[in-house]
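User: I'm curious what two different proteins look like when written out as structure tokens. Can you demonstrate?

Assistant: Sure. I'll show them one after the other, since each token string lines up with its own sequence. Here's the first protein:
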Amino acid sequence: MTARSPRYGKSRYKILNWRDYDASLIKRGEMTFWFSEDAIDNWHPVENADIRKSGGQRQYSDIAIQVCLTMRLIYNLPLRQTEGFMNSIFTILGVDISSPDHTTMSRRSADLKIIRQSLKKDGPIDILIDSTGLKVCGSGEWEEAKHGKGRRKKWMKLHLGVNEQSQEIEAFTLTSHLLSDGSQVAPLLDQIETKITSVKADGAFDEDHIRLQLEDKDIKGVFPPRLGAVLSENAHTTPTQRDKDIIRIQKDGREIWEYASGYSKRCMVENAMFRYKNNIGAKLRSKTSERQEAEVALGIHLINLMTRLAMPQSVRII
């Protein structure tokens, strides 16, 4: 008979740094605009006769495009309103620069390289992996059911790799909803240059090929065995990590195994998905795959900046 841990209702937590965390939430809503001299000087690309190409030349640098698209995401504006919003800011500040027009922002977002501010990691990190769906603006389910299959997908799947220590999003992939979560483990880990100690994910990742991928990279995989999982043939002589997890769950119960193995920390990746959808949105505004990836990359960059302001430090009291 399987042993199970008793539960006494929902757990309760106490936030230890409420004053700092509360101040950071207020700071996220402040509207303070300024443009440094470096930003103004780099608003337009530096002309170089040696790399001059045929045709029309770019009038705005990647920094200018990223700033405008950032404002678009923060204030949930269409491209045309973003252009007017940025021009209003420049007029109020008395800055002698102008906003890129909406067609330029849309065209340049397809190949935009997002400029990120990465923090130095102290030692190896643990990665939490999960996925969520993002709706694609366009015809919905009702219109498709009535008029047939539309030209655009209804939603895309966003895969995240979250740093357990800092709760920042270290890697992401944006795929069709038809691809499995396990197929994105290698693409996510390849984006992370820091040494990884362990990868934690839900039971959908309990597959042999995923565990072999992690073993080849000397990474510990923490996945709950699926319901009805059985031991391997050599479990009593040379047990694998999966065999040890099955034996521990049968002996002490799933809840105790979750806390002992660190699997309970996987809820942090769900918190990261909530922060993304709550602050950036649950829909993709862009229509093409290249622009959608740039939109998600910029949104993740903003979420990481908000995370660095402050995060709640909580302890379990019940």
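Here's a second, unrelated protein for contrast:
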Amino acid sequence: MIDLHTHSVYSDGTNTPEELVDLAEKQGLKAIALTDHDTVAGVSELMAASKKRAIQAIPAIELSADCERGTMHILGYFVDHTHAAFLEILKGIQEDRHERNINILKKLNKLGHVLLWSDVKTEEVQHIVGRPHFAAALVKHNYVKTKKEAFERLLAKGRPAYIKHFHYSAQECFEFIRAAGGVPVLAHPATLHLPNDALFTLLQQMKEDGLAGIETYYAENNLKNRRTFSDWAKKLDLVCTGGSDFHGGNSPDLKIGVGFGKLHVPDKVLDQLDAVKP
């Protein structure tokens, strides 16, 4: 069993890369991929920690891509986390993200939810700041009772403190990932909020643009979605990948490797991904 979708303190998770390896070992996993948002800063730590254990560490990333509806994330597996051109692209994304964060902070303050940057970018936050960190700060300062409420009232799309930021197209994300030696995969397809016919048509186009896989084994995919995505993967010759989308304490009911308890990503997925590397 493997887990190809996890997050650390370098984005919006609460565990260090070394702690992720510890948890993976306790769960009996054979491999783990670190897919932090827009950064590979934690990959070296993950790989160093895995050398002490019988666990394979997969250098990876999760990029946000532009889309009309919902949320589109592109996972990149086996990326060279030292690739200079790739790191430069990530630097630009992170700079835009920082500007967005400052503007979210200003909006919250104008709405009467007064926070300092140090309330959001705490010592525990190693690298990337995102909306989950704002949600945590809002809970800590008693502006909302839960992180879910923070998103529903303030931070989600269409809410008063939401700010859209720049995203590359999916095709550009594929190109960046492949140029860094990686394999691009569409994460959690259901979050695109598209009817099945429109989603399948989009996958066909994405396949032509360089997509190599689709996240089929995913903690929040119901059985119907899993079967549908698996069928589509066969038709389009895409690899069925998967993972828990583990965020540690930010999603306490979600466990590494097994999701909500029934997730099982087959070991063979790694060989299938390896076979389609550039």
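A detail about the second structure: The chain has a mean pLDDT of 93.
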